[in-house]
Specification:
alpha+beta; 4-stranded mixed sheet; 3-stranded antiparallel sheet; binds protoporphyrin IX containing FE; 19 helices
């Protein structure tokens, strides 16, 4: 007998059960598939049309890139896309979307692709900034950030950076106009190199051969900032149409010669001791000892990884710190009130009879606020790469896109959020040198303002020009030139050194 259509409910009918299961499963599958396909269908972010092949390249001229991105964001919203050659750029400009990229989807956006110059100059991409997140990155970061550049690590090599700062400032000619960026770059660069390999036995004498290392580092940064056809169209990279790859290889070789000599001297039992050398343990010594005790499989046992890590310290932040100091000085020269407040604080905390020392830094609250405000106003972009497709702000960010977080725009966003201040980035890939950068910013700027009275050089009567440009960071379009006058009793600086 055919099964009754109206079979009593309490009667178990196997074919009905099977049919019900099939229908329910199909329904569940249908909704899952719709949801999944909807996910797939999340659109790409909006953005301007570009030209075939070139994409938006021809329209990127004119305003510096952080401003151009902010303009496009005003038109297309807090997330937009542009094609730059064959590369898709996605730019986010709000704290909420920065959080989605840097925190909520950290595993997707945890790597970054450096330009070709960056890879050539870091032993093929073996430094912390280039390495993908994984065991090698992890153990290198641990050694550098948690040990060498930790608070006790930085305390341990204070004498070495102090000596370089005092020496470089002793060389400033009172009454003579000086380019503030160049001066800051020299002071910061020498301080960094002093603590890196200027300790006893390193062959590092006061102000040693740091000039060449600084010059190589500066040129690497300039080259990295140059638009390179090889980055925009990787299939053309082997032709190196602008010769950028060749110059980068020469710079990489020069850096390698310097770093290899430093390591060799140290492994051979130290260099000749010269006048002014301080017998202190420097970072090279700390890192070499760490290398010696690291087990097989550690990236530190690879000399290329080791040198790439030293390069991160030697070159990593000098330009950025020097530029931030130049911006801070520009803002202070524009505001008598702020300049007086900083100097008053320095006089109260440090006094006219001593030099700024590391132990003063924690009490220099106004100076700290000046630096934080400068970082808010003048630190710009960071970029990560999408390791797989991901949804951000309701839009699909395809795998391989370069995602830029426009901190310059975010820092000006009046809507408060936990991601409104990210000058050093965020998450596990936050700047590895943040603690060093913060100390050097405060120590060098504090010393410049404590030791000298500054006025604009002649010819700058129009006042301080705050227009900006972008290289790898926001840079002053017109370099600040200022004239120092002494604020301290004569001879104090020499005694202190
Ligand atoms: C004012 C000074 C500096 C600024 C504004 C700055 C800014 C940044 C930013 C925004 C990032 C990317 C963070 C992210 O993706 O979330 C970064 C990464 C990095 N910075 Fe700095 N930095 C400065 C100084 C330094 C110094 C002094 C060093 C050297 C020790 C350094 C070494 C690095 C390294 C190695 C990375 C890559 C870290 C990783 O991917 O694990 N930086 N920095």
């Amino acid at each position: 007998m055919a099964a009754s259509f109206l079979a009593p409910l309490n009667q178990t009918n196997p074919s009905l059960i099977a049919a019900s299961i099939a229908i329910i499963s199909a329904t569940i599958f249908y909704f899952w598939a719709v949801k999944r396909s909807n996910k797939k269908l999340a659109p790409l972010p909006p953005g301007p049309l570009g030209l075939p092949i070139l994409g938006y390249i021809p329209f990127l001229n004119g305003a510096p890139i952080h401003r151009k991105f902010a303009e496009l964001s005003a038109k297309y919203g807090p997330i937009f896309k542009i094609w730059v050659g064959s590369q898709l750029y996605v730019v986010v400009s709000s704290p909420a979307l920065a959080k989605q990229v840097l925190r909520d989807n950290e595993s997707v956006f945890s790597s970054r692709e450096l330009p070709l110059v960056g890879r050539i100059c870091t032993y093929g991409g073996l430094d912390l900034a280039c390495l993908p997140m994984g065991p090698d990155w992890n153990s290198m970061r641990k050694v550098l950030v948690r040990e060498a550049l930790s608070s006790p690590g930085l305390d341990g090599c204070y004498e070495l950076r102090r000596r370089e700062v005092v020496k470089a400032l002793n060389e400033v000619e009172v009454g003579k106009p000086v380019g503030v960026f160049e001066l800051a770059h020299k002071v910061v660069g020498n301080a960094t190199l002093g603590m890196l390999w200027g300790g006893g036995g390193g062959g590092g004498v006061v102000g040693g051969d740091y000039g060449e290392t600084r010059e190589v580092g500066q040129r690497i940064m300039e080259l990295m900032a140059k638009p390179n056809v090889s980055d925009l169209f990787p299939m053309l990279a082997r032709f190196d149409l602008q010769g950028i790859g060749r110059e980068a290889a020469e710079l990489a070789e020069r850096f390698d010669r310097i770093v290899s000599a430093m390591i060799r001297k140290r492994l051979d039992g130290g260099g000749e001791k010269k006048g002014g050398e301080i017998d202190k343990v420097d970072l090279l010594q700390v890192l070499l000892e760490r290398r010696g005790s690291s087990g097989a499989g550690s990236p530190l046992t690879s000399m290329a990884h080791f040198k790439a890590m030293l390069q991160d310290v030697a070159v990593g932040g000098n330009e950025n710190i020097a530029s931030t100091i130049e911006w801070a000085m520009s803002e202070l020269l524009k505001s008598d009130r702020a300049m007086k407040s900083v100097q008053q604080e320095l006089d109260e905390i440090v006094g006219p009879d001593s030099l700024v020392e590391d132990h003063h830094l924690k009490d220099l609250k106004y100076l700290d606020a000046v630096i934080k405000e400068t970082c808010r106003l003048y630190l710009a972009l960071m970029n990560r790469t999408a390791s797989r497709a991901c949804t951000v702000g309701g839009y699909t960010v395809p795998q391989g896109s370069k995602v830029f977080v426009n901190s310059w725009a975010i820092h000006r966003d009046p809507h408060s959020s936990s991601f409104r201040y990210v000058p050093f980035g965020s998450g596990r890939r936050i700047c590895a040198g943040v603690s060093l950068a913060e100390r050097l910013l405060k120590y060098v700027l504090g010393s410049l303002l404590h030791r000298f009275e500054w006025r604009l050089a002649d010819g700058e009567e129009g006042g301080v020009d705050l227009s900006d440009d972008f290289t790898l960071f926001i840079k002053k379009k017109r370099p600040l030139v200022a004239v120092p006058a002494s604020r301290l009793p004569a001879g104090l600086e020499l005694l202190a050194y």
